[in-house]
Design goal:
Helix content is about 35%, strand content about 25%. The chain has about 475 residues and is an alpha+beta fold. The N and C termini lie far apart (about 80 Å).
Length: about 475
């Protein structure tokens, strides 16, 4: 196998491990779902609708076999093909292989849908088939068997040879191959080998590298005071017993698991305590700097854990199936969580200038300053899109907020050349507001706000002079 094929195989295996948890939850006593194959199509690219930056994510096809039993015990097996953008299932197919997108996705993400369609049209069917998980696994096993038997093993022979070997022998061969791959830094970089994964039984829905610098200065492991751990997984709380027998399950959706370099894993319930002021339906907001360098205040986190030794917190937010993670600290004045999104195995790279916002060297009250700036924007209905607008420095703002009601009153009180206030005699505040918003939307890219407001004053004054009937009630 060449390096590209190995990379695709690792991606598809990691993707399979991720979605198997979700598929398991869909199964019932009378309905079983099996993944038959996974095929990488490629990477779809689009422009972010908020800041216009280029975005990309992988598109994969998942072929499933669904077996259902009716009330009489009769089984019916059907095949289903689903399309995924990242780890989110966004489409399926009809019998004629026509793609049908999820209605919500089609309405809210037309740019992404267009990018996926263009990728599918540009990618030959033969190339997609070459990326088949089954074919790549067979090719890999042919190489392993060739090295073991001392002869070239064709891919067509693999199935028969594996049938003749016992399970333990196959596992030993796979482990030997994995030990060789571990010596290659690029292959080892962000992946536990199969032996380790089986040993710790972690089927995580999100993975974090604790050696990654989370704030431009310190690693996440240092900020969380987690010495001896290499990585951290987010798992469903209901699965913690499988990882550390006897562990008490927390009454929250997600739990945290620490993994050491030898693959041993520990549920971190003794290291963290649940923050009951947020998560699972609580109404208290968290202030967040996100991976795309925007900022929000919301209460979307469903599980929040606070480190017992130093008070730092980890929050887990479910964003339409994708788990976003945040590193929080408490503000001094309001004791509210403020923090930054953590770079994980499934998020984009977070710019250094964004991560540095929460750097400890910026002072004791940096969190309070960041929280205050973000709240000032969000209270005005604004979603800040530039680091300068929430970096804790009031001198670096990029824009002033538009006070709509102030300007509505200013237009109503406009005096013409004769000193008459005719607009308020004819038009209501609501009519002025609608007119101003319409003009701002239509002319906002061509004229300044001051020019638009002056234009509305003059136009509505002229209309008031010409109208013969009274509009105001």
């Amino acid at each position: 196998m060449n390096q590209k094929e190995r990379k695709i195989l690792k991606l598809e295996e990691s993707f399979r491990d991720t979605i198997e948890n979700d598929i398991l939850k869909q199964q019932t006593e009378n309905k079983k779902i099996k993944i038959k194959d996974i095929k990488l199509v490629g990477s779809a690219e689009w422009n972010d609708k908020i800041n216009g930056q280029k975005r990309a994510d992988v598109v994969l096809i998942v072929e499933k076999e669904i077996t259902e039993k009716d009330e009489n015990g009769k089984e019916r097996t059907t095949e289903q093909k689903n399309y995924y953008l990242g780890i989110k299932c966004i489409a399926g197919t009809l019998g004629n292989n026509q793609i049908i997108y999820n209605n919500t996705f089609a309405i809210s993400e037309p740019d992404k849908m267009k990018a996926i369609n263009e990728l599918l049209e540009a990618t030959p069917e033969e190339e997609i088939e070459k990326n088949s998980l089954n074919k790549l696994q067979t090719k890999e096993m042919a190489e392993i068997l060739s090295a073991h038997l001392g002869r070239t093993v064709a891919e067509e022979e693999v199935q028969k040879l594996m049938e003749d070997m016992d399970k333990q022998e196959i596992e030993e061969l796979s482990e030997e191959q994995e030990e060789k791959e571990e010596k290659e830094p690029e292959e080892k970089k962000n992946k536990l080998n199969k032996k380790q994964t089986e040993k710790i039984k972690v089927n995580g829905i999100q993975k974090v590298d604790l050696n990654k610098k989370v704030d431009g200065k310190q690693t996440l492991g240092n900020r969380l005071d987690l010495k001896g751990y290499e990585s951290m997984y987010v798992v469903y709380s209901e699965n913690v017993e499988e990882i550390t027998p006897g562990t008490k399950k927390n009454n929250t959706t997600y739990s945290l698991v620490g993994v050491k370099s030898d693959g041993t894993a520990t549920v971190l319930n003794d290291e963290f305590e649940m923050d009951k002021s947020v998560g699972n339906g609580a109404t208290r907001n968290q202030t967040k700097v996100r991976a795309d360098s925007t900022a929000t205040r919301d209460n979307k986190d469903v599980s929040v854990y606070t480190r017992k030794s130093n008070g730092m917190s980890i929050g887990c937010e479910n964003d339409m199936g994708n788990v976003n993670m945040f590193l929080y600290q408490k503000t001094k004045e309001e004791n509210e969580n403020v923090g930054i999104q953590i770079e994980t195995s499934k998020t984009q790279v977070i710019p250094v200038e964004t991560r540095e916002i929460m750097n400890k060297n910026r002072g004791t009250y940096q969190g309070d300053k960041v929280q205050d700036e973000i709240q000032e924007h969000t209270d005005e209905g604004c979603k800040p899109k530039d680091v300068k607008d929430f970096d804790g420095d009031e001198n670096t703002v990029t824009h002033e907020h538009f006070d709509l009601e102030y300007y509505v009153q200013e237009i109503l009180n406009y005096e013409n050349d004769q000193g008459e206030e005719q607009i308020k005699e004819v038009f209501t505040a609501n009519e002025v507001r609608e007119k101003l918003l319409r003009e701002l939307k239509e002319k906002g890219n061509q004229l300044s706000q001051d020019q638009i407001i002056q234009g509305v004053k003059e136009e509505m004054n002229l209309d008031a002079e010409n109208l013969e009937r009274e509009h105001k009630r």
